[in-house]
Write a structure and sequence with these properties.
rod-shaped; about 50% helix; 5 helices; 14 strands; about 20% strand; ten-stranded antiparallel β-sheet; Glucose Permease (Domain IIA); alpha+beta; disordered N terminus
Amino acid sequence: MRLCIHAAIGRVGAVLAAAGRRCMPLLLQPRRLLQRLRTMNLILLCRDARGTRHIRLSPALAAGVALSALALLAASTGLGFLMARSLDTGRLATLQHGLLEQQQAVAQLREAAEQRSHALALRVAGLHAQFMRLNALGSRLAGMARLDDGEFDFSVVPGTGGEEEAPLAPLRPMDLDAELDALQHQLQAQRSQLSLLAALLVDRRLGEEARPQGHPLASGYLSSGFGSRIDPFTGQRRHHRGVDIAAGAGAEIRAAAGGIVSWAGAREGYGRVVEITHGNGYMTRYAHNARNLVGVGERVQQGDAIALLGASGRATGPHLHFEVWQDGRPVDPQRFIRAGRG
């Protein structure tokens, strides 16, 4: 409504201003104006059948009428200019108000975009951290599984490719959020799977480390096997729980597998003995030692020196009596010795 009124006023002002501009030449030429006034006639048109009437005006009266008309035209012209100026001022105010609203809208959009960008940056940083943890876990698993470094190098981006396809429509913000959510869920699922695989590999590795394998002496020969044999002291047949390995006195006796020393001391018939608990139901015993090199509670690795070979206890000469126990019963140590050689 306000704009319509302004438009109407503007049109009236423009008409008055145009009329004033057409009369200005007469005001600037007085002689021409007086000539026009001397010959001024008024023609009256009647609606009845009498036709028209001519009235001749005196120069003084004509001058008064002309001056009044000119004054009216001057006032109308000034009013027209004022109305046009007022209209321009109103339009300028309207444009300024619209520009201010647009600037505020742009500022709000910019602030929203900055907040959106900050939120996306945080999400990308979180995904990057998850990728780093997965890479570290993958490298650890590759090492535990003894995989080829060139085949599973987690520091190198894997190659990808394929035929060129038509470009898809750009992602909308809501589509990007959905993609990031799906990627985060996938990373979490893969991390859970890798963690489970790591636990399985650790169990398998511990099981392999706990399983005795290898020869407890650097050199020597088997002097008595596992199972039924003739006792060298009584001459009677008895069950031999381990194997006897003859070697030079003072030779280093080494742990057949990693574990914890559960006994280190003297026992009847065994002399000085060392027992190691390996886990997974395995225990090894090393008897007739000249001297023990480890104590109870010590952790040893496969191949560590634990005693020196001797002839303590019930022995006919320097040798190692070696036993392997599995799940509470003695088993033949030779299969574990052969496994270490293979």
